[in-house]
């Protein structure tokens, strides 16, 4: 276990190193300068600005400096907000994103499990059909369309929730619903398929033959075993939420990292884009590592050295 | 035991060996079906998938047919007919009869604009362009992007997966590590970075989506290849000295086809979704070109007062996504009967 963990953490660091290197050199290839109005500036002014941001050094020196900084959590200074370090900018913005993302994940997966389990228990009845329709719709409707509809109908028309801004819990409800739809749909589909499979297996027959109650069979045997593989789709769901948050945060004007990413892209704020790319990869790597380890712990049949695909 | 039953001669009818009709009536076997025919038969039994296939066919015909016949020019600006709601002649339901609520009163927008005789099925946008034509145009752009990106994704993903699975060993490990690294950056982030480098536009969107979405295909194809390459017929082909490239095309590819087709059905809606997201953020397709994403973005600005401008593209986008998802599900069941009961 310790050996496996060490190996995985080594790969995580290697991956992050490659991500940092790739983004750094990709950013150097970008057309356009971070200066808003280059034509108006004199040569010496440009030179001064470049010096301030360390852009006058050779590329390999910039790269090494960046790498050294990144290890210590320093991603340089934002181009857009001239005296703000990227790390400060992002650390003040990661909270709302994490909160909404986690809420969406928890809500989506829990409701998804319930919907999927009911679908499987009452196979081919109207309950099952409804569950299937809900999950297919959740996968097919893009989160940003859902976000606008929720904002308009629940926010503006009915006035139940604030339509934008960031304050207390009430402000997180609509974005959470918009982001949670896909995880809900995906996990409902997944749980249903798994559980239909499990319900027809021998040990369920045995449990029934022993005279266990219906709830006992469903809760202790069927549901538990159907939930284990669900851990494998947590990684893809996290990606989905990260992607969705970029647009959804924009729609609800939430000061999160998704909104910042879009803003930075539109203003050529390279250091912030790089910092965000690294943070996104880091979060994803941690989620993937965590789910892999968890899978091994929860399901002893999976040898930890093996792959959990 | 010894006495034999004497049957009269005339209770039998003699048939000639070349009397086909008589011989066929004795046959009880059903016509033997090929794998594809069998899958097709199962697909037709699946109502959802069958309807989706028809819906997609209609969407394709309309989107590409609008190149030849379009109700209006999608780019023709007509400011005096701006923001007309949808009007379908013969339908009196509010929302489809050309009326809209202004200052608390329902008025006929077409009469107000002096165009009582005209009608726009989906209404017009803020520049007076026919929304129906623009939706058709946008659908076409979205579909082209998705299809071309998927084609690239197919070639890269299938080749990569087959090579990795076939070679195995060290090469396989390295190739899988590369995929793991790509998978550890969210796709949209990579796509955005690539588009920034390549300058926004249709080509760069296609390249960016193609370069990021093949990983899933590669993993599936690899897993399947590793299974198939242990089969006897592959061993036979190798023993007979067949070149690996020929084995790949003649033996591997046909046996991988169901995995490939099913996965494609899920790649296409993904590509459409990425394109819509990018255009929605504002780094995708730029005007005067339109895609479903840009139409959604335009429509969202006026959603409070002119909701139809967003409803229509949103509806079409969702229908396309839904149809591809249902078709994908249906194909999976059709190709792999084990998944269904």
Which secondary structure elements does this structure contain, and how are they paired or packed?
The complex is a heterodimer of chains A (309) and B (341).
Chain A: H1 2-29, H2 43-52, H3 59-71, H4 86-91, H5 94-121, H6 126-140, H7 143-157, H8 173-199, H9 202-209, H10 214-227, H11 234-251, H12 257-266, H13 270-298
Helix pairs in contact in A: 1-3, 1-13, 5-6, 5-8, 5-11, 6-8, 7-8, 7-11, 8-10, 8-11, 9-10, 11-12, 11-13, 12-13
Chain B: H1 20-24, H2 35-45, H3 47-65, E1 99-102, E2 105-108, H4 109-112, H5 131-167, H6 169-183, H7 187-198, H8 202-228, H9 232-239, H10 244-281, H11 292-301, H12 308-335
Antiparallel strand pairs in B: 1-2
* H/E element sequence of chain B: HHHEEHHHHHHHHH
CATH topology of the domain at 53-78 and 131-334 in chain B: MetI-like fold
**CATH architecture label of the domain at 53-78 and 131-334 in chain B:** Orthogonal Bundle
User: What is the strand content of chain A?
Assistant: under 5%
Q: Assign an overall shape of chain A.
A: flat
- How would you classify the helix and strand content of chain A by structural class? mainly alpha
Rg of chain B: 29 Å
What general form of chain B does the structure show? flat
Query: What's the CATH H-level homologous superfamily of the domain at 94-255 in chain A?
Result: MetI-like
Calculate the mean pLDDT score of chain B and round it: 81
Please give the alpha-carbon distance between the first and last residues of chain A.
19 Å
CATH class of the domain at 94-255 in chain A: Mainly Alpha
- The name of the CATH topology of the domain at 94-255 in chain A is MetI-like fold
- Overall mean pLDDT score of chain A? 82
Q: Quickly count the helices of chain A.
A: 13
- Kindly report the greatest chain-chain contact and the residue count on each side: A-B, 41 and 39 residues
Label the structural class of chain B: mainly alpha
Output the number of helix runs of chain B.
Answer: 12
Name the strands of the widest sheet of chain B in spatial order: 1-2
């Amino acid at each position: 276990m310790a050996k496996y963990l060490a190996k995985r953490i080594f790969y995580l660091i290697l991956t992050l190193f490659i991500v940092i290197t790739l983004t750094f050199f990709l950013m150097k290839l970008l057309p356009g300068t971070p200066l808003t109005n280059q034509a108006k500036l004199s040569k010496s002014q440009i030179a001064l600005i470049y010096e301030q941001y360390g852009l006058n050094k050779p590329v390999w020196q910039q790269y090494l400096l960046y790498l050294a900084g990144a290890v210590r959590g320093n991603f340089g200074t934002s181009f857009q907000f001239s005296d703000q370090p990227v790390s400060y900018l992002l650390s003040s913005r990661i909270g709302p994103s994490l909160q909404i993302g986690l809420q969406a994940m928890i809500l989506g997966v829990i409701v998804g499990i319930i919907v999927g389990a009911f679908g499987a228990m009452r196979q081919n009845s109207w309950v099952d059909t409804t569950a299937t329709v809900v999950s297919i719709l959740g996968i097919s409707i893009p989160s940003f369309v859902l976000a606008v509809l929720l904002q308009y109908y629940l926010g503006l028309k009915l006035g139940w929730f604030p339509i934008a801004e960031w304050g207390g819990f009430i402000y997180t409800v609509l974005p959470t619903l918009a982001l949670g739809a896909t995880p809900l749909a995906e996990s409902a589909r997944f749980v249903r398929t798994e559980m239909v499979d499990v319900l027809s297996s021998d040990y369920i027959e045995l449990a029934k033959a022993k005279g266990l109650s219906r709830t006992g069979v469903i809760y202790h045997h069927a549901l538990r075993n159907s939930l284990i593989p669900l851990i494998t789709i947590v990684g893809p769901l996290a990606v989905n939420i990260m992607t969705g948050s970029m647009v959804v945060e924009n729609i609800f004007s939430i000061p999160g990292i998704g909104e910042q990413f879009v803003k930075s892209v539109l203003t050529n704020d390279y250091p912030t884009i790089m910092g965000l790319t690294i943070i996104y990869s880091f979060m994803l790597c941690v989620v993937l590592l965590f789910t892999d380890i968890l899978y091994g712990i929860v399901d002893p049949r999976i040898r930890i050295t093996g792959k959990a695909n | 035991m010894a006495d034999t039953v004497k049957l009269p001669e005339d209770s039998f009818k003699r048939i000639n060996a070349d009397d086909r009709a008589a011989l066929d009536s004795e046959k009880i076997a059903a016509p033997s079906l090929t794998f594809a025919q069998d899958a097709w038969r199962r697909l037709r039994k699946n109502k959802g998938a069958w309807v989706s296939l028809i819906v997609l066919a209609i969407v394709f015909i309309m989107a590409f047919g609008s190149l030849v016949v379009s109700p209006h020019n999608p780019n023709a600006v007509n400011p005096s007919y701006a923001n007309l709601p949808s009007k379908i002649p013969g339908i009196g339901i509010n929302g489809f009869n050309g009326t809209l609520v202004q200052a608390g009163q329902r008025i006929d927008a077409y009469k107000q604009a002096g165009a009582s005789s005209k009608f726009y099925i989906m209404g017009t946008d803020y520049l007076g362009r026919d929304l129906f034509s623009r939706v058709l145009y946008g659908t076409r752009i979205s579909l082209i992007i998705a299809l071309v990106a998927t084609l690239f994704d197919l070639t890269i993903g299938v080749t990569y997966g087959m090579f990795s699975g076939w070679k195995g060993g060290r090469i396989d490990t390295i190739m899988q590590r590369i995929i793991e690294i790509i998978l550890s950056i969210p796709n949209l982030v990579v796509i955005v970075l690539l588009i920034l480098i390549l300058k926004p536009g249709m080509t760069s969107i296609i390249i960016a989506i193609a370069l990021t979405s093949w990983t899933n295909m590669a993993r599936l194809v690899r897993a399947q290849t590793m299974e198939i390459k242990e089969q006897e017929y592959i061993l036979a082909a190798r023993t007979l000295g067949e070149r690996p490239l020929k084995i790949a095309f003649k033996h591997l590819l046909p046996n991988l086809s169901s995995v490939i087709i099913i996965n494609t059905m899920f790649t296409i809606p993904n590509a459409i979704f990425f394109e819509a997201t990018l255009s929605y953020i504002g780094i995708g397709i730029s005007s005067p070109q339109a895609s479903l994403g840009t139409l959604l973005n335009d429509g969202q600005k006026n959603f409070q007062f002119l909701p139809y401008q967003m409803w229509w593209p949103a509806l079409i986008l969702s229908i396309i996504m839904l149809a591809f998802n249902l078709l994908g599900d249906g194909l999976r069941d059709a190709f792999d009967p084990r998944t269904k009961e």
